[in-house]
Design goal:
It comes from Zoogloea ramigera. This protein has 190 residues and is mostly helical. It has 7 helices and no strands.
């Protein structure tokens, strides 16, 4: 696998860990095992907003998708769908934040709306990541050339730690999430 595809895959794993943790917390609330921690939810949504939406997706659009679009007409419909999903990412995050705010204000009566928003967001992200890895990656490996990979690798190597952000600016946020989330999601009190 090419360096940049390995980095994208690692970034997907980082996002998947956060999404899995979010789902486990919501499931724990639904089953009455844990109480909601609205501050933790806000931090998790902030991480999802800052790292994938602001760092990861723009690089895919500007480098991987742009180069692949030129080399592989077959990939264009998938690229257009994925780029459209990237464009609505901010609105999807705002909807998740609004659902969390409604839950916090309404108490248990607002939980179902938050739970539905979380499930919808996570399911869409899984479909999105799977399309990239199972549809785009093979075409990129087949059709992109050495000069394409050099440019793409340079862009993605600028953020070689998907847990912390390009300049380490999200490392503290990720650490806070891990330290306050209850087990098995994090290291916090259960």
């Amino acid at each position: 696998m090419k360096k940049s595809l390995s980095i994208i895959h690692a970034e997907h794993r980082a996002l998947a860990a956060m999404l899995n943790g979010l789902r486990q917390l919501v499931d724990g609330i639904a089953k009455g095992r844990i109480k909601p921690d609205f501050g933790l939810f806000r931090k998790m949504i902030a991480y999802i907003d800052k790292v994938p939406e602001k760092v990861h997706h723009p690089k895919e659009d500007q480098y991987l998708f742009a180069r692949l679009r030129l080399r592989c007409p077959e990939a264009v419909p998938v690229i257009e769908r994925l780029e459209a999903e990237h464009r609505i990412g901010d609105a999807r995050i705002r909807a998740l934040e609004a659902a969390l705010e409604a839950y916090e204000q309404r108490g248990p009566a607002g939980f179902a709306g938050f739970q539905a928003a979380v499930v919808e967001y996570i399911d869409a992200e899984w479909r999105h990541m799977n399309a990239e890895e199972h549809e785009i990656f093979p075409l990129a490996e087949r059709d992109l050339q050495a000069d394409d990979w050099a440019a793409i690798d340079a862009a993605f190597l600028a953020n070689d730690n998907p847990w912390s952000g390009p300049a380490g600016e999200y490392e503290q946020l990720f650490s806070k999430i891990v330290n306050i989330a209850p087990a098995p999601v994090g290291l916090g009190p259960g």
